[in-house]
Amino acid sequence: MADRHSLESSELQSAQAELPPDPVPLSVTTVDAHCHLDIFTEGGPAGAGVRAALDRAKAVGIDRVVQVGCDLPSSRYSVECAIAFPGEVVAAIALHPNDAPRLPDLEGALAEIEKLAEHPRVRAIGETGLDHFRTPPEKRDVQEYSFRRHIALAKKLGKTLMIHDREAHDDVLRVLEEEGAPERVVFHCYSGDAAMAQVCAARGYVLSFAGTLTFKNAPQLREALAVIPADQFLVETDAPFLTPVPYRGKPNAPYLIPHTVRLMAEIRGVSEEEIARVTSATAERLFGPF
Ligand SMILES: [Zn+2]
Ligand SMILES: [Zn+2]
């Protein structure tokens, strides 16, 4: 997530009224590899709001989503949502790097994440990682400790590690090396440049691109996507944040993925069907079968 604390629910509600229109559907289906349904839908993890969001996405070719938890309530929600929508939703759960250092009982929370993570509908441990943008220097020890614990959990359970890295590229790569990375690692909302992308690719990591790929001021992301192997990238929304151009600033949702897929096709010089096919296959390799 970008920063869910910055959007008040009243703001979100009024923003919902101005949701962007549906894009032209993709003819090959793919996956939203990272979203927060709990933040922008009503009615709980098995409710009508989630159903409506999934239906709207499915109508344009996004027929599966990874629902991501950031704290205990949203992690519990994610597991329930994945149970309620088999074939359509799988869960990733964790204590977000900005939340972990603020918790009064980090050990207790980690213990509950470890228990929840055993559920077969949980396919990834994340989002975890490091965020030097929102967490001040004096809290970074705790943040890194929490990241190490999540890495250990992903390895212990054989699940994919889903990383949040904000302005902390070198330290994230260092900690992964020190701990020994799990077999499957994905950088959600990839924010590095082409040189870092090559390092990640060489280590077997997968890079997941959000709507930021379409932002005018992010040429380094487009350069990164251009240099990595076809089976090492995913597409995501991080909804309700990071809405792709031309709807930047409006609320995001999984049905808006086609905008990002179409730009990916342009950057890679392949068809949009090919982008959908490879991102779907990579998502199933990391998270699936749904
Ligand atoms: Zn997120
Ligand atoms: Zn994030």
From TrEMBL:
Region Disordered, residue ranges: 1-24
UniProt GO cellular component terms: cytosol
UniProt keyword Metal-binding, yes or no: yes
GO molecular function, one term: metal ion binding
Record CDD domains: TatD_DNAse
Keywords associated with the record: Metal-binding
Gene3D superfamilies for this protein: Metal-dependent hydrolases
InterPro entries: Metal_Hydrolase, TatD-like, TatD/YcfH-like
Listed SUPFAM superfamilies: Metallo-dependent hydrolases (SSF51556)
Pfam families tied to this protein: TatD_DNase
Alphabetized NCBIfam families for the sequence: YchF/TatD family DNA exonuclease
Listed name of the protein: Unannotated protein
Species: freshwater metagenome
